Structure formats: structure tokens, C-alpha cells
Fold these 3 entries.
Entry 1:
Amino acid sequence: MKNKYRNIFILFGIAAIVIMFLTFDMEYEELWNNLKRAGMWLPAVLALWVIIYLLNTFSWYFIIRDGEKGSPIPFWKVYKLTVSGFALNYATPCGLMGGEPYRIMELTPYTGASKATSSVILYVMMHIFSHFCFWFASIFLYIVICPVSLFMGVLLTIIGSLCLIAIYFFVKGYRNGMTVKTLRILCRMPFVKRWAANFLEKKYDTLKRIDSQIAELHKQRKSTFYASLSFEFIARILGCLEVYFILNILTSDVSFASCILIMAFTSLFANLFFFSPMQLGAREGGFALATGGLAIPGAFGIYTGLITRVRELVWICIGVTLMKVGTGVGNKDSNK
């Protein structure tokens, strides 16, 4: 990737860091006292994400390798792009608007534009697909450990139905590819239909090739497909340890199963506000509502949201820093 493009992405990351510093809803002295209260659990939360990002990297790495013995890109660089890509996604409204173009542009010198684009699209699909699988599985966990009222029964039925519909469309997209169909849908939407039509016309052959690569993974590389999905799903479960660690600062009367439900509800709530940069306010509100729904004081949820926000800030700083590390690809023109 050219340095001027990389620097634009870095500016997005720096802007996110500044915004997060300015939007903490408390005095800095109070924030510092809360961080000191976390003690050893704060480093534990930060270290946990080393492992979570490692699982995310394995998921994407399996897709890039596509069943081959070797890989066109070193694993450590895929890890770097994974961390930096997620950092950029925190920085942009609607998510997936900064990290994915960055990953494609950085991966292209290793695999070519078509393969880079298809692997990133496949990974994004896998990442989102695992969300729906996680939410759907959490419904059954709730039924097992919590009493189900009429209201919750109706709500869980609605959520489960929406998850099944989403899972169906994802599976269909994996079987047939979805880039061309997505562009055709955009061709009917106001504001973007002219751009989408021009892009579809100019890049039709490339988009069809990307769709064939997406379909090939599901049809011919099923072991790669399920390995990638498994790593993403395990990352979702492991991410619930973050909530468990934080709540153990405040109380010992919390189970890991409850933390899974808190994380499931919170991530669902936060994704409903996907248009918010860094999901400011949405995640904290989701934590408060989720803990309250499980008879845990709402203040605990707000504190959990605070520590999570600090963790995000630290990892955004790490991700933005990594964007300037190891940028060479053995191509003298790649950094011009």
C-alpha cells in the first residue's frame, strides 16, 4: 500500500483515539480511580484480547491459505492486519468502513487484488455469521438458566427467527457468492445507485471471479470453512471472559453463563446502533440493560462498559501503531 493511503487510515485511527478521550462521561480523576480499582483484572482483560485477536487471525489465515500448504503472507503480518483492521473499524461509523479497505489494500501485494478482496469479504461474512450463530445459541442458554416470561418468550422467538433468516441468507451467499447480487441491490437504492451501476459495469468480471472464489470455499473447502467459523465462534465465547473478569472486580456472585448472556445481549444491542462511531453510548447502555435483566445492578453494567471502552482505546492505539510496523513486502514500489 502507498504510504499516503496508509497515512489516511492512520489519521482515522488517531481521530478515534481523540474522540474516545473526549467522550468519557466522567472526570479523569474518577476514571483513574476506577482503573486503579480494577487492579490486576485490567491487565488480564488487555491480555485476553491478544488471544481473541489470535483466534480471529487464524480464522482469516485459513481463508487466505484456501487449503494450500503454504501461505503467500506470513502469519504475523495477518495478525498485524487483523489488529489494525479492527482498530480502524472502531474509528468509523457503520463499522467495516475503514478496516476492510485497509486490509484489502495491504493484502493485495501478496495475493493480488481479486484474492485479497474475496478473502476479506469472506472473513467479514464469517465474522458477522458467527455473531448470528452466537446470538442464536444464547437463546437456548437463556431458556436453560433463566425463567422465561411471556414477554421474554415472544422476544426470544423474534430474535431466534431473525437469526435463522440471517443464517439462511449467509449460507445462500456462501453457496453462490454475493458481491454481484449486493451491487445489483445497491443499483436500486437512491444516492448510491449511479455509483453502484458504474462500478458493477466496470468490475463485473472481477466481481464474478470473487463470487466464484467465495462459492468455492463453501463447496470444495468445507474443512477450511468450518475451521474458520469455529475459530470465530470460539473467539465470541472467549470474549465473554472479559465481562467475567470485570464483574469479578465488583462481585463474586456471577457465573460465566450469565456473562455469555450479558455479552450476547450487549453485542446485539450495540449492533442495532451500528451507525454510531465506536458505538459510543450504545455498548454502555447495552451492558446496563443486560445486567439489569439478569438481576445484576445496572451500575455494574456501566462499570463494565467503562473498562471495555478503556480496553478498546488501548487496542486502538496498538492497532494504529502497528500500521507503521512491517510495511515492506519485498516490493520496492509497494510503499511509494
Entry 2:
Amino acid sequence: MNEAGALFIDMGYSQCIKHGESICGDAIAFRRLPEEERFIAVLSDGLGSGVKANILATMTTTMALRFIAENQAILHSAEIIMDALPVCQVRKISYATFTIVDTRLNGKARVIEMGNPEFLLLRYGERVELPFRELESPKHAGRTMSVYSFEVQPHDRLIFFSDGISQAGLGTERYPLGWRVKGCLEYTRRILRDEPEISSHDLANSIMREAMAKEPHLLAGDDMTCGCIYFRHPRRMMLFTGPPYDRERDTECAEMVKNFAGTKAICGGTSAEIIARELHRKLTLDLSTVGKELPPTARMEGIDLITEGIFTLTKTAQYLESGLGSNRDDPAGQLVDLLLANDIIDLMVGTRINEAHQDPNLPVDLEIRRNIVKRIAGVLRDKYMKEVKIRFV
């Protein structure tokens, strides 16, 4: 999977709740199957909005992920899902749309759609029109699925969304029929022309912001979800935090940072001082970041980001878990952006105890560095589908 020339599947999504609701009626879920070099994504839009719609959508994504991962027959699986959904007491139907994306690192891909807007496959910024076959359920009248099977190439983009995106601005003077799939396509082409290497995370957020801009008073008239997948060669990042347990390993750690091919970040003043000393590089405080909630960042040749340690890592974990860290104008937000822009994250964690962080009166979230790093690694794997390696030194 990580050999030179291998593909990596970069996933990102963005979601907005319908105005006036407290929970999203769309659901999106992902699963990476490393042993099969396979990645599955499911987006579902439940009937209506609010809690009932969320239940329908969540049930659909959960079952669809399991059935597809187990290579169950598509039509039979869809009928099991439709049979299992609770019936709406008002409309007397059980219904949730879905888009299933099943991709492999050898380039083979399959998309199954029922009820959602047609997905987009862009290659070098242009849409690829794909043939498909239709499957119709004999048990559920009008439930027709479109099944696409195709080969992806490096740099392809696959974009899928709920109708809250394609119908953004519906009924307004400028968009009487909504933004539509065509509008999303044209906007995405412009973005990719200006930023051809934009991450899936940033692209999904950008599409969401543009859809919201179409809504009257910037209030979402429906739940909105946009998922993006980017097929490309993997981007790597190393984060070094904490001095090594044995001071004699300082030089070894510095050499690993120096020779790492990819994005580099250091969290912790002592950690940064070790690298500066061992590599004979100047370490300077970034005065423009002084006075904010978190301690300021620093600068060093060859390092993309240097932050304080335990406070910044704790805030980074919180941002990642909440999904609110992107573009935050503080050191933790900057670290989140770097982590999400890369695919394979190497965490090199020193295990020397810092007595300053053992005070039991400090906040509960101020865990020792090892546990905070494990939190970050867990959410990167489970929520953002990153490949994470931890090395304790």
C-alpha cells in the first residue's frame, strides 16, 4: 500500500444541519480494509429531517457498509436495508437514499446510487461520463439503483453529495431549480483549476461553503453533506514531540527528523531545542503569534510547524474529535490542517517524563503526552481514515 508509486485514497467530507434542527438527517460513514487495500464510503439521506431522518440514514450507512464489505449481492442487500427501515407514520413509507463508493488501490472502483444526486468523477479537472446498469427491486416499486464499475487513475477526484447540495438556493430568483449537479460541477472545476492539489477535506469544505452561499440568508433549507475522494500518491508527515527517554538518543532523533521526506512538525519547546542543537539550526520565536490563547509558535529551517507541547496537542485532539479545527487561527488549528493535508502520519514520541505535567490539580484533559498522542492517532485513523504509525523513543 505504501510502496513507491502506490495509490492512496484521500477522503474528506463536510456536513451542515438544516436550519432549525439539532441533528443532521444525512449520515456519512467510511471503512478502510487494509488487508484488501480497499476503501468504502456510504452517504445516506434519511426521509425528512431531524432525529427520524438521522435514524433512517444512520441505519442505512451502517448496514450498507457491512454488506458491501462482505461482498453481499447488491439488490438483495438493498432490499434488506429497505425492509429494516422504520416506516414514517405520516407518509407511510420507509425511505433513505444512498451512495456507496467501493474502491481499491489497484484502481478498480464501483459506485452504487439510489435516490441521491449523480456523483461526479473528474480527471484533470474534466468530468468523465461513465456507463452504468440499472437494478430494480421487485419488492419495492420505484426503487431503482444505478451501478457504475470503472477504473480510476492517479489524480482522479470523486465527489458525491446529498440533494441539500444540488438543491441549494431552490426557489430563489437566481436558482429557481437549485444549484443542481451542473452548478457543483462547474464550481469544482474552477477550484481544481486554481488549486489542483487541494485536499479532499478542503475541497469538501469549499463546496459546502459555496452551496451555503446560495441559500437565502445563508440558512440551510435542508441537510447538506458532501464527500470527496482523491486518488493520488501518498503524502507523508512526521510529528516529533517530547524528548527521548535516553538523552543519548537525541542525535538519532534529530537525524530521523532531518532525513524524513515529507511535512515535519515539532510539538514541545524541549523537543525543538533538541533538534536545533543537534542540527545546528537557529530556533526563533514567532512574535506574530504571541498573546493568543495557546503559547506561540516558533521557526526553524526545514521544519514546517513548531508549537508548544502538551497544551497544543490537547487542543489539537479536541479539534480533531469535534471536527472544528480546520482553519482555526491558532497553533493547534495549524497542526490540524497539516495532519489532514497528509495521508501517512509518523508520530515520534519521546517518553522522558516532564514533571511539570504531573500536578493532579491540572485539568483532566492535560494527560501525559503518550495518552494525548494516542487520542490523536485514534481519531486520525477512525474519523479521517489516515494511516498512523507511533514510535516511542
Entry 3:
Amino acid sequence: MTTPTGAAGLGAAPVVARWGTGHPSAPLVVTLHGGGASEASMIELAPWLPPGPVAYAAVRGPIEDGSGFRWFVDGAGLATTMRWFLDWLDTEGDPARPVILLGFADGAALAGALLLAEPERWAGGVLLHGELPADVPADRARLSGIPVFLAHDGDGPTHDYLVSRSGAPVRAESVPGGDRLDGRIVGEVGTWLTERLDFLRRHGENPLADGDEPGWPTVPGGRLPDRGTADGAPRRDELLARISSLEGLRPGTLTLDRSTTSGPDEAFLDPATGELARVDDVLHLALPTALAYDALAKGWAVPDPLAGVRVAAGRVRVFLPRDAAELDVVTGVAAAAHGNACTPAP
């Protein structure tokens, strides 16, 4: 095994295979192969993925490994490879173009590390049968607003973090014993990419959390607290009764009459019917994105798996309250969604 030398210890530029449009502003999907393979194994996927206008770039790993290539060796050199990759990406067309990473096995580990290291650079990620490296940032809500497609072979640290704490809307597909790119998963990835790219064309990239803590006039104290631990069974019926009493809801439903409200479509679960919320084992609703990200960061909610892909970026699933204090907070969260739905669209 040999490592090319050059600037930063790696080759000056990667070998790249391409497919699709060459327009410098078109969305770019960068594919990253598994260990011991090459860019050829990934560019073969491009004809089975959305045709565009989108550009596909399959990058070759910088470390020779027999007849194939690797990205790093047992975690060593990961930071150097990431810097080498980002230096190359800086040369790829319009810096404002949306970029989605698609990685398999070790390539998924690299893609996950890149997503977590610089989340503001990415419009999404597809992680296929790989694990997040142990030494990358993994704080709560770090990936808020960045949709992820995950193929995994069982629950584990990567799945648990991405689905429960990362803030990313995650479409997770379980593939027991999966160690290759089978046709079903490639088809599911193609559908997910088609919907994500269509969302980008219609709405632009999801706004990312900017670190400022938003106000919540509808929540006691005006700020959303961190969700702690509480004893007791979920207080579903009490929550449902409180939400049902919000002004303007049709009797016996959680829907608003759209003929008398003019809020944006993104404020509703179903804009056609005026459905504001739904309660089952969680509370489904749509919030303004800044409030949605705050709810994710404070542990009150997880994203809808298709937020920013098929539905609005602010669509969340709020945990049911377990005591009286949480009941007041979650009622306030629902009231914020109600207020947004009743606000005239700009």
C-alpha cells in the first residue's frame, strides 16, 4: 500500500469520472467509493440516478491499495483526506451550487465526517453501509436542515445518532447483512435524490440554524427550555384537548378553514384540507424553520424523515408531554404552529 505525496501529503488533485451536465451551477452529486475500489464502481450508478439537470462526479481515493484505492487507513489520515477533498471541491464550479455527498462503506464514513465537520457546505447526504468515524463532531442538532438517506444493516451508534440526535431528516432503510449496492437500494436512493433535487429547484436549500435562540411567545417564559427527564405516561388526551381548543379549528378536528386563514402552505400538514396537526404516539406539525431547529436542539422533537425532501423543512415530530410542565411547553409549541398557519403569507 502506498500513499501519493504532494501538497498536504496527498496528490494535488483526485482522478474524477463524470456524468451528466457540465453546467457549473447545476446541483452536484459527489460519489465516494468503498475501500479497495475506484471511481469506476460509483460512476456506474449515475445512469440509474436522476438525469438532471444534475452533475455527477465520482472521485478516486488518494491511497493506493493493490488494484484499488482507499480514503484513509484505520482512521489515520482522515483529516488530511478531508482537507484534500475540500480543496478539490473548491475548484468545482459555482461555490453556491448545491452539493450532495453519496458514499458507500469507507466512502460513507468519509461522507459522514464531511457532513459533520462542515454542515453548511452540503445540501444532503447518502450514506450506504458505512459508520461515522469516532473522532468527528456529533453534538445534538448539528445536521439540522440537511436531509440524509441512510442504508444500514442494523441499529447501532451511527443509526441512533443520525435518527435521534443529529437533527437531520433521515430516511433510514434497514438492509440486514448489506455489504453491496443492490438494485432495491439504488432505486430507493434514486427516488430520494429525485425528490430532494426537485425540492431544491422549487425552494432552494434549507436554511440552516444560525445559532441565535429564537423567542417563543407562546411558551411559558418566552424561550423553549431544554427537555429534561420526567416521570409519567404521555399525556396524549390532555394535549389533544388543549390543541383542539385553539381558535378557528373545525369542531372535532385539528384542521383550519383555509377560506378564512391565509398562512403559508408550509404551515400545514395538508394545505389542501387545512390539517394543522396530528396526534398519535407523537405530535406531528410544521413550524417556522428557526423554531423547528430550536425544538430539535432542545430535544423536544425530531424531524419528519422527509422534511426538505417531500415536505416542508419545518415539519417535525414533537414528543408527547409527560408531566404538567411539559404539557404547558408542548401546548405552546402547538400554538406557535397555529399562529404561523394563521399568519398571512408574505
